[in-house]
Amino acid sequence: MFLELKAQATSILKEAIQKVGFEVEDSELQFETSPHADLASRAAFRLAGIHKQNPKELASRIVSALEIPEGSYIGEVSAAGPYINFFAGRHYLERTVSAVREEKEKFGCGAPKDRILLEHTSANPNGPLHVGHIRNSIIGDTLARILRRAGYDVEVQYYVNDMGRQIAVVSWACELFELDLSRKSDAAIADVYIKANVELEKNPEYVKEIDALMEKVEVGDVRTIEQFNQAVSLAVAGIKETLLRLNVVHDKFVSESSFLKSGAVQDIVERIRATGRTKTDKGALVVDLSDYGFEKTLVIQRSNGTSLYTTRDLAYHGWKAGQADRIIDIFGADHKLISGQLRATLNSIGIKEPEVVIFEFVSLPEGSMSTRRGQFISADELFDKVTEAAFEQVETRRPETSYEFKKEVAEMVGIGAVRYDIVRVSPEKSTVFNWKEALDFEKQGAPYIQYSHARACSILEKAKEEAAWNPEEEINPSLLVEDSEIDLIKKMAMFGSIIDHGARELKPHILAIYARELADAFNQFYRFVPVIAAEDEKVRASRLALVDCARIVLANSLDTLGIGAPESM
RNA sequence: GGGCUCGUGGCUUAGCCAGGAUAUAGCGCUGGGCUUCUAACCCAGACGUCGGGGGUUCAAAUCCCUUCGAGCCCGCCA
Predict the structure, then answer these.
(1) Which pLDDT value is given to residue A469?
(2) pTM (2 decimals)?
(3) What is the pLDDT of residues A360-398, one digit of tens each?
(4) Residue A370 CA to nucleotide B73 C1', Å?
(5) A133, A121 in Cβ contact below 8 A?
(6) A202 vs A374: CA distance, rounded Å
């Protein structure tokens, strides 16, 4: 709705500026959201600079020339010094309320758009996901949800490394040590993987055994491949379970080895060779990317002829490029360089490059996390502790409820808190994990937003019981005139533009901030405006409708954040 | 040594790419509010050289240069 408001302001302002005698592009209107108006333009600054005029005077001339058409969302425009301030009118507020009531869970959705292939998580199957990995999952999953709501046809993939060196070590470890199958399968894999790495460190001779395994896989040795697969599928099964609990689902798991089998890896090597930018360096095949600004060459084939992760990834991206209009990858900061080289190489052979979203590291107070060294906090452990802490909270706050209720709410609140905590900060900030903060529900996080939703549900529930509410009833939105009602409506109206913005910039944290502000607006309304106790029947009906709208937009926001929306908590 | 990212009240953080009106919000701190739709809430208050320095501009948290600090990367690992 806000996007429409902006579009109307754009055309009104542009017309007025023309009347005053200037030509402007849309981008020169310099709109911004502001505490002083619903939409403010700094166009007078810009025009004054170009045409050597007084910006204040120009602003008031433009405002006098301005005409607001009948039925516009704009109610009023005024000049405040050099600023041109636009204020939404009643029509905008009332239209927003009816739009939410009509569109319900579809409110905020964009028109159908292109097909997107989004890859996220793709952690190596050498152990369970840890708290660093889930930053990838949460950013990726939230983006996928935002893009879907924005109208894109999104397919989400997990790229499974089932043949790299680390996996060879895993497979080797499974032969050497007994798997503890009483544990979750990915944790059992990590145990032997960590032990194997200790062995490798002690006895570097073993490296030859790993090399041998990798060569066997590359040439298609059935038994070795079978062993790799067994180890990989154990780890992947555990990872999937963890992701499911996080409310993250992938449409497809694509394995690296499939590109070797299909010959795609060989094909891509030939294509790169054909550009003439490859050469042999100590027996290895390398690509010269100096014209793309990369000083060091990129190795795409070992001297023994085997492929590398990068080579298979190139083949994977070649395959992806053929099936979608946009390719999006979510990578950790350690992949910055390699993803740049990947993009350059793809560009050099005319394959569509992925858009890469980079997030910085989550480390521990004692340093960065490492599966190999066993230095990590697994996502499962975090989920267990956080839901346990949430359970205690429900128990103190709602002692009268059933065990099942408490469990269900604790799961939604705990997992929601984890997701929100991670998604709320912009990806380029590196963070240090700390238990105290992770388990703290006092701050304005997911539980705060969920609580607002539950409050809205509770009012509606009570009204239904008293037979005082019919959701389909015609209401008169012009009765919603309190400040906190208007603020709430305006906040709801922003939802679509937040989705649009997040999708355009691939920035999920924008939505997290918005959801909190929406909850803020609802809580203020809740505090100041009585709903069920409203004396006038028509006013009560309108307010109930508004509560229902808030409930819908809060639920839509939470859903897009991948966070559960409890009706009671 | 080179490259990328970050540095905003005690702590966490928005705003920075597209420079403009009193710098966003939470935690913590001080004080207030539950016989009234769930107090996981609300209200009020204190706390800021936007890392330091220089520059561009009518105007800089935002752009440029420089410097300091933190993280990540610079493998025939992934």
Answers:
(1) 83
(2) 0.95
(3) 999 998 888 999 999 999 999 999 999 999 999 999 999
(4) 16
(5) yes
(6) 16
Mean pLDDT estimate for chain A = 93
Residues 6 or more apart whose Cβ sits within 8 Å of residue A221: none
A349, A272 Cβ separation under 8 angstroms: yes
Indicate if CB(A363) is under 7 A from strand B: yes
A118 touches strand B (CB under 7 A): no
Helices (H), A219-253: 222-245
Cβ(A363)–Cβ(A430) below 8 Å: yes
> Residue A76 in 3-state DSSP?
strand
Q: Which amino acid makes up residue A285?
A: L
Q: Please say whether the beta carbons of A403 and A225 come within 8 A.
A: no
Name the token pair of A328.
């999006």
Whether residue A48 is predicted with pLDDT greater than 90 in this model: the reply is no
According to the model, what pLDDT value does residue A287 have? 95
| Token pair 């099942």 in the structure block, residue | A404
pLDDT at A88: 95
Query: pLDDT tens digit string along A439-491?
Result: 888 777 999 999 999 999 999 999 998 877 888 888 899 999 898 999 999 99
Q: Please report the domains of chain A, with CATH numbers, ordered by start residue.
A: 2-88 (3.30.1360.70), 120-363 (3.40.50.620), 379-560 (1.10.730.10)
Strand B proximal residues, A:173-232, Cβ < 7 Å = none
CA of A45 to C1' of B57 (A): 13
Residue A383, CA distances (Å) to A191, A417, A514 in order: 20, 10, 25
Is the Cβ atom of A310 within 7 Å of strand B at any atom?
Answer: yes
